[in-house]
Design goal:
This protein has 17 helices and 27 strands. It is an alpha+beta fold. The chain starts with 11 loop residues before the first helix and ends with a helix. It has a 6-stranded mixed β-sheet with strand order 11-10-9-7-12-13, with helices on both faces. A 4-stranded antiparallel β-sheet has the order 20-27-26-23. Strands 1-2-3 form a 3-stranded mixed β-sheet, sandwiched between helices. Helix 12 crosses helix 13. The longest helix has 26 residues. The mean pLDDT is about 95. The chain is globular and about 70 Å long. Strand 1 and strand 2 form a beta hairpin.
């Protein structure tokens, strides 16, 4: 399903290499050393891969420096390279054929990992459940009509939906198939007549969810693709396994490669969703603020990275709408804060001590929405360098938060606003500035984003994005400031801007006021005045006093 997070029985990469991150590719050759196998990941995970992957077995690369295909062209010219046609998209495989003509690409009938993984966990089959209309804001019938209209516009008989998030949104269902992402893993075909064929484990879909849909086991999709005779079919090749595209082409089905028609409507939150999302962020902000107050009082009994993240979740659990974390919490003290997607383990995590930084990136899945927030906190006295770098990251964060841009602007056109304060002193960060966020769904949701790469998607009202510039000094500390924001209309006609959703104080002790402009100081004071007004009556007296001091003007 090309999901960022996968069930335990699908963690093939982790079984083979020990890598626990969400993005990686391995190539294993039958050659002798030195070029036998290689591991590739992006900049978020390079340090983590160095810790988790055995460097004597794998050459470890940042995929922005060299891609798996480029590596294979150099080290396996003329070889046959096997791949699983269910786990690689049509776009990816077709790109391999074009860019690496000196390799023979062979789709395998059986994945060798599946044959070798003797103690593989059994697949769980938890029941899916309805996502209430009071939170969704639109019925499944209304959503299906919008999809049918797109099919009519493209003159196709149906669309093949391969992304479970799209189908869960369309049918107003959620599930428990993936930890931290409340979705049912499934595929679907929606016809121009409004018929929905859902391919999922039947025992996972109770009768109450089957109204208006035709339910089939996952294996039936292969049969239906082989026998499709209803006319042209739309699909998104970058999200469709090459196996399914080949089946349809062999059946002489005319294929129209277009973006998943659910993706954009799903990203454009309706007013009901936005109302609950805004309220959810205040609930989550109160939990985070209680945690920050608690942490500030732990000087005599320093916590560990693991105990701190557990305490933060305890505060979130106080809300009856809270269900689970929206991703594994990144709780990194000192040098571990420089590992962008660090994951603390109780048996090996660090204990806090004075004169370093603590980076905590966390979020919650609530019925009313999905949250994601990062705060960097000084433990003891920070160095001047830490404060200077924190202030530069803050300046980049404020630049995005206050950006005003014309309708039609793409996220990559804003990315340099966040990086300029760091670029001015020769620094940068190796991850995107922003990602889209779902509504009680995936914490990373497209198509919107802000990064160096262009995806051709303009920002629109109702989209939710993160705002998270950072700075990382390997072996010493990491800094990231992250709020979620909502795209809204600006005062200027034809322009857009952002409204902050995340409501929790930033660490004033790390700010060098003299580095800030008057406008940046005004933003800081305004943001913290808003945080005080929204959160003070949600806190007990001692936490309320702490918040008042934290939100005092610079």
């Amino acid at each position: 399903f090309f999901s960022e997070y996968v069930p335990d029985h699908e963690k093939r990469l982790e079984w083979l290499t020990g890598f626990t991150g969400s993005a990686g590719t391995v190539v294993v050759l039958d050659h002798e050393q030195p070029h036998r196998s290689a591991f590739f990941t992006d900049g978020r995970y390079v340090l983590q891969a160095a810790q988790e992957v055995d460097g004597s077995l794998y050459e470890i690369y940042n995929s922005s420096d060299i891609s798996p295909t480029e590596w294979l062209k150099k080290n396996a010219a003329g070889d046959s390279i096997g791949f699983d046609p269910w786990l690689n998209s049509a776009t990816q495989v077709e790109r391999w054929h074009k860019t690496a003509r000196n390799l023979l690409w062979v789709p395998l009938a059986n994945n060798p990992i599946d044959e070798l993984w003797v103690e593989r966990p059994a697949a769980a089959t938890p029941e899916a459940f309805a996502y209430p209309l009071e939170y969704a804001g639109q019925s499944r019938q209304e959503k299906i009509i919008t999809i049918v209209q797109q099919l009519e516009e493209h003159d196709v008989s149906a669309v093949l939906l391969t992304q479970p998030q799209s189908i869960n949104w369309l049918l107003n269902i959620r599930g428990h198939d993936i930890e931290n992402t409340p979705i049912l893993l499934c595929r679907a075909i929606v016809t121009v007549k409004g018929q929905v064929y859902l391919y999922a484990n039947e025992e996972q879909v109770p009768e109450a969810l089957r109204t208006g849909i035709r339910l089939y086991p996952p294996s039936a999709l292969v049969t239906h693709c082989k026998r499709w005779k209803q006319g042209a079919m739309m699909l998104q090749c970058s999200a469709t396994p090459i196996k399914l595209k080949k089946l349809l082409k062999n059946a002489n089905v005319e294929l129209i490669n277009k973006p998943d028609p659910c993706t954009l409507p799903k990203a454009l939150k309706n007013e009901t969703e936005l109302k609950h999302i805004r309220a959810t962020h205040l609930t989550d902000g109160a939990a985070l603020t209680k945690f920050l107050h608690w942490l500030d009082g732990q000087a005599d009994t320093p916590p560990t990275e693991a105990s701190a993240q557990d305490k933060l979740e305890d505060f979130r659990k106080e809300s009856p709408d809270y269900r689970e974390p929206s991703f594994p919490t990144i709780s990194g003290f000192g040098e571990n804060g420089a590992i962008v997607h660090y994951r603390a383990q109780p048996e090996s995590c660090l204990t806090f001590h004075n004169n370093s930084l603590y980076l905590v990136d966390s979020g919650g899945q609530y019925l009313g929405g999905t949250t994601d927030v990062t705060r960097t906190i000084t433990i003891g006295t920070p160095s001047k360098e830490m404060c200077e770098n924190y202030t530069r990251v803050l300046q980049g964060h404020i630049a995005i938060s206050t950006a005003i841009f014309p309708t039609g602007t793409n996220g990559n056109q804003l990315d340099s606003l966040a990086r300029t304060p760091l670029w001015e002193v020769g620094q940068d960060y190796d991850h995107g500035t922003s990602h889209g966020v779902g509504c009680y769904m995936s914490v990373h949701e497209g198509p919107q984003s802000i990064s160096k790469r262009s995806n051709g998607v303009s920002l629109q009202e109702g989209m939710i994005l993160s705002n998270e510039p950072g700075y990382y000094k390997t072996g010493e500390y990491g800094i990231r400031i992250e709020n979620l924001v909502e795209v809204i209309a600006a005062k200027q006609d034809g322009f857009l801007t952002f409204r902050n959703l995340t409501c929790a104080p930033l660490d004033k002790r790390l700010v060098i006021k003299g580095m800030l402009t008057p406008a940046q100081i005004e933003w800081w004071n305004s943001y913290h005045q808003w945080a005080w007004e929204c959160l003070n009556d949600r806190l007990e007296d001692d936490a309320q006093c702490w918040l008042k001091e934290s939100c005092a003007p610079l």
